[in-house]
Amino acid sequence: MIRLLFIIIASISFISNVNAQRQVADNPQTFSIWLEEFKLEALQEGISQKILDVTFDGLLPNPRVVDLDRRQPEFTQSSSEYIKIRVSETRIKNGKKRMAELQSVLDPSAKTIGVQKRFIAAIWGMETNYGSYTGNFNVVRSLMTLAYDMRRSSFFRRELHKALVILEEGHIAPDAMIGSWAGAMGQGQFMPTSFFAYAYDMDGDNKKDIWTNEADVFGSIGNYLKQHTWHENQTWGREIKLPDDLMERKAIVDLTHEPNPPRSCKSALSLHSKKYSLTDWKEMGVVNLDGSDIPEAIGAGIEATLLMPGGINGPAYLTYQNFRTILTYNCSNHYALGVSLLSDELK
Ligand SMILES: [Ca+2]
Hints:
single chain; 347 residues; alpha+beta; Helicase, Ruva Protein, domain 3; 7 strands; binds calcium ion
């Protein structure tokens, strides 16, 4: 009888355990079995038993991460609302202050990489408020949760493996590897695969510490931009003025409409016009905000797209290659415009 009772209790406990895991993430496979298989694979791919023991000891999927991954997109913010919040007076003031404080690190890092420091600082400011908020999720736990969950499991399984390689190489201690809920890490919010492609050991200590070492942070953000076709001698673009006459304005927009935006970052680039030289834009009647001519001296080789995030009556921008590079960091016109306008304020 006691034995039977034990079996019944054990079965109930087993079933409720399985159900708890099913609630956490969408996967018919029991979490513990999934994890054992993952660890075996990691071991075969060169991750040490020691790192696996330290990182996965008692680690369970994080239901909060699944909730965040499932949530509906928030209400769409207009470009001007977004800019007002993200490029606030406080953020501009803090940016200038932080750039001055860290001048002896920022200036040589930016020079070595070949990216203007105001753009590195602007991305740093937009991503983590100049390193003051880098997220407080255990990166391995987040990635493990999203890899176990089946929605985007192959992507996150790859990221989880790379996160373990980062720990294996000793860039950061396991308990210090924190980040945002989806695994973006450190002051520049790099995913583990981006870490291996773009993180940069600026101070030469053989560690790429994108969490606490500002030289490495600046080097890494700069290197990401540099590796995505950054032009050091150019800016991001400029706010411009189209003809006042609505019909003329509409004619330019219709004429320059891009029917086949690039597949990479299509959602943002589908709102950009075709590329034209600054000389062409000038001939179409585009002028600076104050009515003066747009520069042609730097314009000979620059191809710019027209972006009007607020529609035909909203602000208009000509954006250069560097704007498209910022879009590779985060495929959102709001974001890239936020970085661009913040960089202008930090100039
Ligand atoms: Ca370093």
